[in-house]
Amino acid sequence: MKIRTPGTIEDALSIVIGMIGADAAGRAIDRSASLIHKMSDPDHHAGVSFAQAMLLDAACQHAMGEAPMLCFYQQMMARNARRLDAQSAQPEKLASTVMGLSKAVGDVAGMVSEFTGDDSEDGTALSHNEKASLLEHHRQLLHAADQLEDVVNARKPVLAKG
């Protein structure tokens, strides 16, 4: 038997088969046991309709007190809700990221001004400590720029189908 990926419709159907058997599942939706097995195969084109899923759950509920297809749909809806929540937070992420980048630019500009003044550690030349500090802030600036690029280029989430 093929291993089914947890959280998929094929996995939920395999649970149904395990609970009530392929024959009883087939009778519940007026299909053959062999077709039920094919429907649970992720590599097969046969699928389970929503109406069939409800009938399968009714049979499982009656026999075992559980509804594996309903659990699958609840988990799928929860995944989609999380993905949509992440998408709706996009404007806040963009604003926050731009503010972080602006701060990093300001920090580097302030350090350059401070480190090249007459009263700095090595006068107008950069000392080793100043170079190290400036390079660390430059890395932070690059990281902030990368974050902005990630936010701007973020794709819309693909909703879970199974």
Commentary on this structure:
19% of the residues are buried. The protein starts with 8 loop residues before the first helix and ends in a 10-residue tail after the last helix. It folds into two domains: 75 residues; 64 residues. The chain has 162 residues and is an all-alpha fold. It is rod-shaped, with a radius of gyration of 29 Å.
Q: Could you say which overall geometry the principal axes of the C-alpha atoms support?
A: rod-shaped
- The percent range for helix content is over 70%
Counting structural domains, the number is 2
Mean pLDDT: 87
Distance between the termini: 20 Å
User: Helix segment count?
Assistant: 6
Q: In sequence order, what are the helices and strands, one letter per element? A: HHHHHH
- CA radius of gyration: 29 Å
Number of strands: 0
Poorly predicted residue ranges: none
Measured by DSSP, the beta-strand proportion falls in under 5%
Outline the biggest β-sheet.
none
Question: Structural class given helices, strands, pairing?
Answer: mainly alpha
List the helices and strands and how they pair.
Layout lengths: L8 H21 L3 H7 L10 H15 L3 H21 L1 H26 L12 H25 L10
Helix pairs in contact: 1-2, 1-3, 1-4, 5-6
Which characteristics define this entry?
162 residues, mainly alpha, 0% strand
Can you summarize this structure?
By secondary structure, this protein is mainly α. The protein is 71% helix and 0% strand.
